[in-house]
TrEMBL record:
<protein>
    <recommendedName>
        <fullName>DUF11 domain-containing protein</fullName>
    </recommendedName>
</protein>
<feature type="signal peptide">
    <location>
        <begin position="1"/>
        <end position="26"/>
    </location>
</feature>
<dbReference type="InterPro" id="IPR047589">
    <property type="entry name" value="DUF11_rpt"/>
</dbReference>
<keyword id="KW-0732">Signal</keyword>
<dbReference type="InterPro" id="IPR018247">
    <property type="entry name" value="EF_Hand_1_Ca_BS"/>
</dbReference>
Length: 348
């Protein structure tokens, strides 16, 4: 702080005039601003006007560091084995100076083995999505030269493991840490509070609150977004029943050579799960049976392997080790639904 003053003589009929600083931004008066206050005194002696006396006081506005991070929820729905899933955040510099903001992420909840490849991208068009141009531009580790009161939209991007299960959640924090600005395209030094008494220069005061992954007055702030896994929970079952044999026909038939056996394959999706799409069934037949082309293949049946429609494909020798193969796509399997594929073979 710099102060100037001038002593006053004997005073009579005193008048005081003060002048002050420039208008303040929402973040406050800019750091480094010199605020000067001038005062003047006019007076008379013996009824005669004397020279007016003046004095002034000047001080420098210090740097108040404050950062805010907001997650633009709600939770992002994801499926197992998805990549580049997005959480959207707004990062605002509430300081009274331009700062650089280092960006890091932290997994606060969820199984670490089932989420990976955390990256941060700038959301240049502000639509909350990772567009091709943003993906091509590549991830960032800091925001450069963020002006006071400025808000920058960013995206936290992650990959979900194929082992993530329906109902799993992952809580991911974005931390923005204030660093010194001044050199474009370079992350400045981390800002720390000035200790001791106020100096004549620009001191630093850390004014931030506590976020979800940082403490108060540490020059950083954080907010947390959530991924919620919506996965299909499929149960696959294969059963068989003897339809007839050459001796007993259909009366308590046995699994003897020449007997006809029906295979039933069911695909069930649990209640509350996500719909399973692009469902494909592949069944390589044992070498000891022969596919019954006369009966055919039925698909999209119910849980008891009835009510299906003709479909599917038989391919002789197309399976593993040259086995015959049955294959077919099934319709989507919604939560709580079962679809089936069934066909018949003859025991050799």
């Amino acid at each position: 702080m710099k102060t100037t003053k001038q002593l006053l003589g004997a005073v009579s009929a005193v008048a005081l005039v003060a002048m002050s600083s420039a208008p303040a931004l929402a973040a406050g008066t800019s750091a480094g601003t010199t605020i000067t206050n001038n005062v003047s005194v006019s007076f008379n002696v013996g009824g005669v006007a004397q020279n007016a006396q003046t004095a002034s006081n000047s001080f420098t506005v210090d740097q108040r560091v404050n950062v805010n991070v907001v997650n633009n929820g709600p939770a992002t729905s994801v499926s197992p084995n998805q990549t580049n899933r997005v959480l959207s955040f707004d990062v605002t510099n509430l300081s009274n100076s331009t700062v650089d903001l280092a960006l890091t992420t932290s997994l606060l909840g969820g199984t670490a083995a089932n989420i990976s490849n955390f990256r941060v991208f700038r959301d240049t068009n502000g639509n909350g999505l990772l567009d091709s141009a943003e993906l091509t531009a590549g991830p960032i580790t800091y925001l450069d030269e963020v002006a006071a009161d400025a808000t920058v939209k960013v995206l936290v991007v992650s990959d979900i493991s194929i082992n993530a299960a329906n109902g799993n959640t992952f809580d991911v924090a974005l931390i923005a840490d204030a660093h010194a600005a001044g050199t474009a395209n370079t992350l400045g030094a981390q800002l720390v509070g000035t200790s001791g008494a106020n100096t004549a220069g620009i001191d630093t005061v850390l004014f931030d609150g506590a976020g979800t992954a940082d403490a108060a007055n540490d020059g950083a702030f954080s907010a947390t977004g959530r991924y919620t896994v919506a996965g299909a929970v499929l149960t696959l079952a294969k059963t068989s029943r003897v339809i007839s044999d050459p001796v007993n026909l259909t009366n308590n038939p046995k699994a003897i050579p020449g007997a006809t056996v029906e295979y039933c394959i069911t695909v069930a999706n649990a209640a509350g799960a996500a719909t399973a799409t692009n469902v494909n069934v592949v069944d390589d037949l044992p070498a000891d049976v022969t596919y019954s082309a006369a009966y055919g293949i039925f698909i999209n049946g119910n849980a008891t392997c009835t009510s299906g429609t003709a479909g599917g494909t038989f391919a002789a020798g197309a399976g593993v080790s040259g086995r015959d193969r049955i294959s077919s796509a099934l319709n989507d399997v919604a939560a709580g639904q079962t679809r089936s594929l069934y066909f018949q073979v003859v025991i050799k």
